[in-house]
Amino acid sequence: MNLKKLFIDYFVSKGHVEIPSAPLIPENDPSVLFNTAGMQPLIPYLMGKEHPEGKRLCDYQKCVRLTDLDSIGDKTHHTFFEMLGNWSLGDYFKKESIEYSYEFLTKVLKIPVERLAVTVFAGTDKIPRDEVSASIWKNLGIKEERIAYLGVEDNFWIAGESGPCGGDTEIFYYRGDNIPEKFDPKDDHWVEIWNNVFMEYNKDASGNITELPKKNVDTGMGLERVVAILEGVTDNYATSIWKNIIAKIEELSHKPYKGNETSMRIIADHIRTSVFISADYAGIVPSNTDQGYILRRLIRRAIRHAKKLEIDMESSWLEETAKVVIQEYINYYPEIKDNQTHILEVLKEERIKFNHTLEKGLKEFSKVLAHIKNSTIDAESAFRLYDTYGFPIELTEEMAEEKGLTVDTAGFKEKFKAHQELSRTASAGKFKGGLASTGEKETMYHTATHLLNAALKIVVDKNVHQKGSNITSERMRFDFSCDHKLSDEEKHKVEEIVNNWIKEDLPVTMSTMPKEEALKSGAEAMFIEKYADIVNVYSIGNVSKEICGGPHVTNTGKLGKFRIIKEEASSAGVRRIKAILE
Ligand code: SER
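Above: the input record for the complex with serine. Below: its predicted structure, written as tokens.
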């Protein structure tokens, strides 16, 4: 059964246009590492912008959620997954949305109604209880005892802290025999399969809720989970989705998958996600920052588990498994097709790199264990494992946990930071021939984006806001809200201001404060981001103040000369500047 096709065909037959999956790495949103939900690329349209394909859309969207990283290894979690979704942008609302879901589940997928239950939004003191959805469900034949009313925690959906949002109704399926009459959302046999969000509000950064110009529908259904249900298994890795991938790992390890092989699941999951991250047109490669670091962690963790399974480390087992993943998805995602060779090269290179140090690192780990105090791996040893043997801290933590030990992670982070500072100083020429510098250029460009943002506010409009950015060691790209093409004069003026600030050698300082305080103090923020409660605020002299994860140079004098090499349209109302530091 091809669930993607059934889903798309059904919604196309109901007047929806199929749109392609957006890239896994968000194009204009540096605040999130990966797309985490089908609705994320559609936020501007949910906020009211006209979508070129119309008001009824459907797709399957690639997503990566890292909150589940620690659960990987169990039978139901994945770092990468596909989300099926249909949207109404100011077109149909609750009635059609619920009726479509019901018809698709019971008529197309032929799921017996006896196995279904739903939750609806219980409301708040400001938003009424969703009796409308409840009565639509009842009219379709869902019994009263199969409807649970839940509050904001469970039935109000928002991506992060602010943006389009609304109450939702979630559909559950009963896995198991002896289906109970009454629905109990706390009973694990009931698994959530589909979420219909009725997006009618916008929540701004200060928490104010206002009505959106249009009432929208955003639905999301986890493909892996539903396939497992349809194929009658409780282990997602036993479905047709994973069959060939697991078979390859069985072949390489000369061991059968019987259902309890955590390492096999970790390898399968991490290689699939690594294939998709390296396939993305953003050109991510393993590194020590951002998406590159996630990719490195995933590959290295997979390698460690392959070693546990006694897979031949000298063979090209990783690429062999990746090739199976590629075959599974090649007909659905053009980037997988276009970047096949690149994906395999990225994986091969990282495998070889880690192979060099893994064996020695494992010996070092055993030595550390022999001298351990208070069941805790000290910061120095954890840092040595990272720096000399390439063990991501999370890998050391996992290995420690397997032995019932912990790691002084806070101490590790301090050492890590001190090392970064040293590297930066080294790269500034103070320790000639000294320590290797990581990401020195990128760090400079990070700071330059803040200066550019501040200069645009002076030259173009004080309401210019950053819409996205993308940094490589070669150049920076910066997207910002602006309704016109910049004139040559405006561009020169921006360059001049930025270069003056560089000449002034302004200090870059960081302070940590509660998010609310940062916003009140007027710090620039990108509102789509799910900011933590405590944030870092970077100030540059008194010309710029932004909530940001960093890293940044310590003084603007280190940036060299700033030059705009291109200014162009990015999307409606958004301009893009490409600039370099010379
Ligand atoms: N945004 C909702 C979710 O991710 C429905 O698509 O669950």
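Notes for the reader.
DSSP finds 18 helices and 18 strands in the chain.
The chain has three domains: 3-236, 242-427, 440-581.
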